[in-house]
Amino acid sequence: MTKPEPAALFTTQDWSPRAFISWRGLLLGLAGVFSLMLAYRSYQQVFGWSAGLDATDPAFDTYWMNLLKGELVVLTASWAGLWSYLWFTRDRALSQLAPREEIRRYLNLIFFIFVYAFAVYWTGSFFAEQDAAWHQTVVRDTPFTPSHIVLFYGTMPLFVLFGVGSLLYAMTRLPKFAERLSLPLIIAVAGPFLILPNLGFNEWGHAFWLMEEYFSAPLHWGFVVLGWSVLALGGLLVQILQHLLDAIRRAELQAGGLDDSLADPQPAAGP
Amino acid sequence: MTKAVGPEAGGEYIEIYGVRWSRWAAKLSAQVDIIISLIIVLAVTAAFHLHFMLLAGDWDFWVDWKDREYWVTLTPIVAITFPAALQYVLWEKFRLPIGATLAITGLMVGAWIARFFGFHLWSYFPFSLVWPALMIPGALVLDCVLLLTGNFFITAVIGGMGFAVLFYPSNWPMLAAYRLPVEVMGSLVSVGDYIGYAFTRTATPEYLRFIERGTLRTFGGHSAWVSSAFAGFVCVLTYLLWWHIGMLLSRVTTLPNRWRHLFGYPRERPPQTASPAVPRDAS
User: Fold this and answer.
1) Inter-chain contacts counted by CB atoms under 8 A, chains A and B
2) What are φ and ψ of residue B139, in 5° steps?
3) Is B278 part of any domain?
4) Is the Cβ of B116 closer than 8 Å to some Cβ of chain A?
5) ∠ CA(B191), CA(B196), CA(B201), 5° rounding?
6) Is the domain of B98 the same as that of B207?
7) How much is the ipTM here?
8) CA distance B68 to B266
9) Mean pLDDT over residues B203-209, rounded?
10) Using one digit for the tens of pLDDT, what is the confidence trace for A137-186?
11) Are residues B123 and B230 in the same domain?
């Protein structure tokens, strides 16, 4: 077996993690989501009790319905903006993608999923349980309550933005996700996404059956089943790691810095 | 575990658990591991908390709902689900015996944060009314059984039982004070019930109307242990089911993409499903 010569690429190119990882993008995404959540929670604290108890009160219209209308405009614009940007700037020659660039894109995808998971946390844990704190205390006289306007029309569309965004990013920029559809990715994005249309049933049920406010009511179980789909992130992360490992090996092969033992990842011989 | 093997083309190689890596790839991989761990913590906290609050949340929210029968039965059955699924993923794929503890800790942290910012700061309830139940001891037992046996069936039987039976005693030190009797307007109630009366929840059913019936009062504390044993039985079955749900959802499955030509790939040729009845070249 002939060993490869030391490759010029390894001496001229940057192979440190910072050549592949864009921390700035991740931190910006997390800071943006956190700032928005902080703003929502502060708004609820200030205007929940003072203007959010009676849907027929003009103050309710001013402080809550206007927020809802603003959210609907912004969420539609952000969905259309991000998703069409990802689609129209897609890579049309994925079969020729260099492995180094592929590694960089896998890390971008992981960051996209990170921001998605962060947004899902605020929705599924923080604001969802806070919804019980509000509705078991205050009688609801409208589907658009101070809790719902933030939870259902603020934080949920936000995680949908990043969820569908990560699906589109993967399919338009990574060869393995473009060639074949990843079922874990589709489940991890589509399940939580379907929580949004399930809201229609939830609100219809609350209005029709005049339900007592307890969270474990069967009306809510659709949210539970759809929430289980987040577990498919496990399969997705395993898939990404497999592909990433493969891209790392190809990058080394291309740079000429890989011997046969690394090309085929077997345990090294010897003690 | 990790040692430098020596400089070769492109940099040093190191060995991690017997597998050779170049140093740059190992560094990158270590950073990816950290990011992925954080994603798992966030995702599990969100999904598990949503699942738990919508199936057993009411009993966890309020101290007067923490009764001797439903709370003791329902909570472990609902709470063993994600630990089982996560144990499958972390044990089978990564040999990490921390799935149950990770899931339950995520749930507890998520619940405490929401209790503080939601129930306490926004709805102004005291913590004596809204503290969440503790499930970490049962989760530790579940992980220990899996670590010691390496067998999901034994973990289901012994760990599942342990998870359920430990739930009530784990919470007893926090709960005991709220079970003391007190007389309110001529009626005998518990301290927990009285706190519930004092802090009005206008839209929620009173728990006494909802649940306290049959011989529950007569049997007193004994019904809690019967409920624990019943929860243990159901937990064994729930664990087995959710271990397999974890298996199903963490499977890497892909399907052909019919629109791959939009990304620069050649169009897929349609599969030949039929052969001509008469060969064309037959003469």
Assistant:
1) 276
2) -65, -40
3) no
4) no
5) 175
6) yes
7) 0.88
8) 65
9) 67
10) 888 888 899 999 999 999 999 999 999 999 999 999 999 999 999 999 99
11) yes
CA distance A117 to A175: 23
Count of CA atoms in the C-beta half-sphere (13 A) of B45: 26
Q: Is residue A47 packed enough to be buried (19+ CB in 10 Å), middle (13-18) or exposed (0-12)?
A: middle
CA dist A157 → A35, A149, A161, A203, B9 (Å): 16, 11, 6, 17, 49
Residue A87, amino acid: W
Spatial contact of B13 and B5, defined as CB atoms under 8 Å apart: yes
Contacting residues of A for B37, CB less than 8 Å apart: none
Tell me: do B71 and B121 sit in the same domain.
Answer: yes
Model pTM above 0.95: no
Range of the domain at B30: 1-45
Residues B23 and B148 in one domain: no
CATH code, B78:
1.20.1450.10
Tell me, letter by letter, the H, E, C secondary structure of B57-108: HHHHHCHHHCCCCHHHHHHHHHHCHHHHHHHHHHHHHHCCCCHHHHHHHHHH
A235 close to B251: Cβ distance less than 8 angstroms: yes
Residue B155 near residue B239, CB atoms below 8 Å: yes
Both B20 and B61 in one domain: the answer is no
Q: What residues have CB less than 8 Å from A2, skipping those under 6 apart?
A: none
Cβ contacts of residue A180 below 8 Å, gap of 6+?
B254, B255, B256, B257
Is any Cβ of chain B less than 8 angstroms from the Cβ of A12?
Answer: no
Q: How far apart are CA A265 and CA B20, in angstroms?
A: 7
The answer, for B196 touching chain A at a CB cutoff of 8 Å, is no
Nearest Cα residue to A239 out of A118, A114, A143, A110 = A110
DSSP structure string for A183-231: HHHHHHHHHHHHHHHHHHHHHHHHHHHT----TT-GGGHHHHHHHHGGG
Domain shared by B207 and B117, yes or no: yes
* Cα–Cα distance list, A271 to A259, A268, B2, B134, B271 (Å): 20, 9, 13, 46, 50
If pLDDT is split at 50, 70 and 90, which confidence band does B280 have?
Answer: low
Lowest mean pLDDT among A54-68, A73-87, B6-20, B231-245: B6-20
Residue of A178, A221, A239 lying closest to B252 (CB–CB): A239
Instruction: Tell me the backbone φ, ψ of residue A145, rounded to 5 degrees.
Output: -95, 165
A2 pLDDT above the threshold of 60: no
Which residue from A92, A213, A233 is facing B203, i.e. has the nearest CB? A213
User: Token pair for residue B29?
Assistant: 């991989």
Nearest to A251, CA basis, from A30, A97, A85, A41: A97
Task: Give pLDDT, residue A271.
Answer: 34
Angle between helical axes of A66-88 and A156-173 (0-180°, round to 10): 0
